[in-house]
Amino acid sequence: MRKVLAFGIVALFLASLFGAGLGMAAETLPRNETIYTANSAPPTNANPFSGGNIIGIDGLVFEPLFMLNFMQSKLVPWLAAEGKWIDSTTYQVKLRDGVKWQDGKPLTAEDVKFSFELYQKMGLKKYEGLREIKVVDDKTVQFLFSGAPNVWVWNQNLFTTLIVPKHIFENLDPNKIKTMTFLGDEKKYLVGSGAYKLKEVVQQQKSILERNDDWWGNKYFKKPAAKYIVQLYVSSNDQAVNMFIKGDLDVGTYYMDIVSAKQKNPNIVSWLDKYPYFPPVVPVVLYFNTERPPMNQPAFRRAIAMAINPYQIVNQGPISDVPDQTPLGAIMGPWKDKIGVKKLIDQYGWKYGDVAKANQILDQLGLKDTNGDGIREYNGKDIVLKFYTCAGCSDWIQAGEIIANQLKAVGIKVEIEKGDWTNFFMAHLNSGDFDLALHWAGTFKPDPYSVYYALMYYKSKDDKGAANFGNYHNDKANELLDKLAHTPVESEQINYLKELTKIWLEDVPAVPVYMGTLFYEANQAYWKNWPNEKNPYGVPIFWPGFGTWGTALALLGVESTATPTQTTTTTSGGETTTTSGSSTTTSGGGGGICGPALIVALAAIPLLMRKRR
Q: Minimum mean pLDDT among 58-72, 490-504, 579-593: which range?
């Protein structure tokens, strides 16, 4: 009996030490020096180029020449002190003084040249028209093109190409680099220039980044406040909510009833300080199959736009906000002001929810209900439009049902067809076999050119914008997009964007119906100065693969609340225990991830792609 009891005590002791038998002792970190974030998948790969799933490898460990602040649609000089077109075919970058690698060696123009060429060798990037990368001196590198390049695509390369040390990577096979995890023995290659180093990865549980106190950026920006950044594996919204309420998570991208959560923990904040709290970022648009009559008529599409009432969709449907009539979201605010979007809408746009005007347009098109069944006819047949969506997209189904009811008021019948994401929904969109559909893939872009190109460019079915599912084509739009692509002069860019916006409003290739939101919550118990609408210095996207889009800016900008030191212990399964005095709280949970926050993961083309569920 004593042996059995002793064995049981030892077993319990070992279990407490090794986290449910995984062989790794729980890590104890100072709570007021540690930022806890989370992801819905466990950290298993630290590859900075492809397949990595650890927040901060891009941006905090390895850095680009420029960071993107996605919420402001602007580039922030980072390793580069400046970058500019010195003529129509030459882009020159000047590096900051004192930039260096984490092993102390200087970061030079040779590293920049090597890094851009490495991406090409790995087949991860193709810099169209780039004929030479010329090292002028240690701090200056020039990119020489064989003609005027697409300046917008080039700008995207400036924040998505990570600079890596030539002296570390030059002896590695580029084809093998793509398949490496950079864990275990491969971790020795993770020598970046950033503010943090990868300290440890506990498989199926967490990753830990540790501050690089000798970071070159300390003198240009400020020393990061957090010594550690821990990414926990938190698989469900419910589990994340409990952890936020108890103060065990500091920041994340999960869906929650934030009003209820704030009542239980007033330290929880988001982008907005009022409903809907979550940041409305880009519009979700209603696509038309513009090759099918009567949807091939701009006047018919305009009537549909007028019959739709986004206010009703927002009040009764997904958590969101009301869009304007363009595909340019809230993040394009500065560009929209320059373009004069409000004035263009007044001149060329429509009025949402104007059922009388919609009916008038449909009557003028000769689309009338001749048999009194409540449905208008085209060529003697009832107008019945098939609305395609995915069975798991509850927000789109809900919005689709509201739209179907609104179009019923103008004599158009809508039938909703649902199926799985890949083999049904996207298969129908990519093949053009649909009438109506909701999506945001064309609007979640870093600049207005990329939005209009994705939605409006069309030369053929093999040469069109990636999100032009409805096969809309307009020769004038193609011409404007080509001119816009190749001019770095802002005044010319604005003029072309004005013309494209006018065409959008007149032709109505698609209809913005509500604003897609990013789920974002932060806890101010230990850390303050999280980015928000009034201080949009960083991006509220805390998923792997978005570090250089502004996540790194957010994590570098937070400040300590200087609360009394507490200790948080993380154990297996991503559970945390926070101890202060005599009280201890433990959080856990389970369930599935769903909801419109997955807008981020699907839209970052050609970055991280992730299936919406």
A: 579-593
68 three-state secondary structure: strand
Nearest partner of 204 among 15, 23, 17, judged by Cα: 23
Q: Strand 228-233 relative to strand 34-39: parallel, antiparallel, unpaired?
A: parallel
The pTM assigned to this predicted structure is 0.85
Please choose, from the candidates 523, 571, 501, 458, the residue with its C-alpha nearest in 3D space to the C-alpha of residue 206. 571
Cβ atoms of 207 and 195 closer than 8 Å: no
- β-pair partners for 577: 569, 586
User: Which residue's structure tokens are 């869906």?
Assistant: 255
Out of 3.40.640.10, 2.30.40.10, 3.10.105.10, 3.50.50.60, the CATH code matching 285-516 is 3.10.105.10
CATH superfamily of 31-46+194-277+518-603: Periplasmic binding protein-like II (3.40.190.10)
Q: Which CATH class is domain 63-169?
A: alpha beta
Looking up tokens 């810099």, which residue turns up? 127
Residue position matching structure tokens 């698609």: 510
Q: Is the dihedral of CA 392, 394, 399, 400 positive or negative?
A: positive
Distance CA 448, CA 339 (A): 10
At residue 27, the pLDDT reads: 60
